[in-house]
Amino acid sequence: MVPPSLQPAAGPSETPRIAVEARNASKAFGQGDALTRALDDVSVAIRKGEFFTLLGPSGCGKTTLLRLIAGFDTPTGGSILLNGRDITADPPNRRPVNTVFQSYALFPHLTVLQNIRFGLDMLGRKRAEADARAAEMLALVRLEGFASRRTAQLSGGQQQRVALARALAPEPEVLLLDEPLSALDLKLRKEMQRELKRLQRETGITFVFVTHDQEEALTMSDRIGVMRGGRILQIGPPREIYNQPANRFVADFIGETNFLDGEVGAIAGDTATIELAAGSVTVRSAGLDRGQKVTLAIRPEQVRIGEAEGLPAVVTGNVYFGTDTHCHLELSGGAGVVARLQSAADDATPLGEGTAVRVSFTPGSVQVLAD
Amino acid sequence: MPPAGTPATTEATIEAGRIRRNWLLAAPALALLLIGASGPLLIVLVYSFLEPGDYSGVIWKFTPRAWFEIFLKRDIFDGTLGVADAHLTIFWRSVRLSLLTTLITILLGFPTAWFIATRPRSQRALWLFLITIPFWTNLLIRTFAIMEVIRNQGVLNTVLLQAGLIAEPIQILYTDTAVLIGMTYVYLPLMVLPLYAAIDRFDFRLAEAGYDLYASRLQVLRRVILPLVRPGLIAGSILVFVPSLGAYVTPRVLGGGKNMMIGNFIELQFGQGRNWPLGAALSMLLLLIVMAALLFYVRVSGRENPHG
User: Fold this and answer.
1) Binding-face residues of B in 161-190 toward A, CB within 8 A
2) Would A154 be classed as within a structural domain?
3) What ipTM does this complex have?
4) Within-domain flag for A288
C-alpha cells in the first residue's frame, strides 16, 4: 500500500503553501427544531509548516472542525482540502493526517513500541524500517528505554509523549492536537508546551492545535483562529489577536480587557473624540461616524494613573499578583477600570483606597469596537 | 497459676477466637457446598466404579468396567474387543455441535451486542430487556416453538413452498441442523450479554485512533476491537459451549432421539439402558471436558489481562 502522503494530489494545487483548508465547512447535528449547528460556514486556510491554534470556549466548534479535518465526521456542507486536493469524502485511514487525542487513546493491549509502530504497520512498512522509525520517534519524545512498557504503566506526561510519537511516526502532512495538554498539571503543561514547539520546529509538520486556554494559544501559535458558536471570529498572529481584537468577544476572551461604552463625538481629520460618561478620549477616526455608539477596549497594562491629565477616577482596591498589582478604579460616572502596574523593587506602597487620581491610556492602545 | 495473659498469648487467643467465629459464619455455605455439590459428585464417581445391577441400580463390587465401556465394546458373537464407535460418534457430535453453536452465536451475537452498546444509553435497557425475554418462557415450550417453525408443514417450509423457492419441504427437523438451530436460539443471549458488557467498556476513541492511523475498518476490528473485547468473547463462548455440550431437551425434541448428544446418552443409561455405572462414568467424563474448557479459559483470560 502506498502511504497516502506519497499519493499524487489530484490536479494542480492552486495554493501550494496551504496545507489544509476548510471551505464553507458546516456541521449540523439533529434535525428540525433540535438542529444544532456545531460548525457554521467556516473557511480557514492553514499554511504549510505552521503552528495553527483553534481557540475558543467549549462548544464553540473547534473540536468539530478538527474532526472534519481528521475525517471522523463528514461535513454537512462545504469541503476539506489537503494540499489543494478535496479530501472531504476520504475516510480517516486514507488521509495523511494524524491526531493526538485529548484522552491520548493509547492502545492498552499494546506496548509503547507497538503503539508507536501501529500506523507504520498499517501502512505496510517493512519491519526493519518501522523498527528504526519507531526508535527514532522514541528518542524524539525522550522515552528511550520505555519501548516494552505497557501504556498503563506510564505517567500522564509519558502517555502524552507516546501519543505524540505514535501520531508523528507515519510522518503526517498535518498533525491534529485536540486539547492534548488539558489533563496535565500546570508545571508539566508548561514543559509540554515547550516540547510541542520543539517537535514542531524539528519535524516541520503543520500542527493544528485545539485549546480553550488563551495563554497556551498566545505562547505557542504562529497564528490563532478564535472561534465561538460554530464560527471563526478572527484569524491572525497572537500579537494581532491580542492588540487588535476584532470584536468584544475576542477582546474579552483573550487576556483581560477594560470595556468602556461611549459615543463618537467630533471628528477632525484622522482623529475622533469618543464621549464617555467620565470625559472624552481621542482615537483614530478611521471607519467611525459621528453619533455612532461604540465600545472602547483597553488592556489593563495600557492604563496609566497620573495626577495631571486624564479621566477623573477613584481607587477602589488593589490586588497583588507578585510580578504586578491590579489597581481597581472607578471612573466618574461609575464605569470600572483595572490598571496593571508592574511591581518595581522600590515601589512598595500601592495607592490607598479612595485616592482621587486621573486615568489616561497609552496612545494607540485604545481599540474601538463597533457595537 | 501463670500470670494472666502476656500480650502475645492474649493476641493468640483473640486470633483463635476470630478464626473459630469465621468458620462458624462460613459453615452454612460450606455445608451447602458439601451436600449440594461435592456429595452428589462423589456418589456419581463411586457409582462409575461399580457393576450395573440386572434391572437398574448398582451391585456394590469394584470394577473399572464402565470406564472401558465408554471407549470399547465386546462383540456379542465372538467376544472380541473393538472400539465403541457409536459412543465416539455421540461424543464427536456433541463436541462438534457445541463448537458450531458457539461459533454461530459469536457471529450473530457480536453484531447484536455491538448494536446495543452503540445505542444511546437510555435505549440500551430496552434492547437488553428484549434479549432476556425468551428466558421467561419454559425451555421445552421454546423448543417446541422452534419445531413448529422448521417441521415439514411448519412456517418456514410453508413460506418457501408458497413462494415457489422449493418444490418439496426441506427436512430440517430431526437432523443435526435442527439441533444446531435450537441450541443457537436458546444460548444466543448467553453470548450477547457478556459481549455487550465487554463492548460497553470499550473506549470507542481507540477505534478512531486506529482508523486515524491508517487501519482499515477490518483492521480496526481485528487489531484494536477484538483484542480488547476478548474477555467478553471468551466468557460468552464458555457460557454457550458448556451448556451446549450437556444439552438434553433440545437434541431430544429437535433431534428426535436418533441424533443423540452426550446428555441424552447419559439419560439413556439411567433409563432404558439400565447401566448406571456407564451413565456415571459418562457424566464424570463430561465434567472433565467442561473443566478442561474452563481451565483453558482461566489461562487465556488470565494471560491477556495482567492489569485487571
Assistant:
1) none
2) no
3) 0.82
4) yes
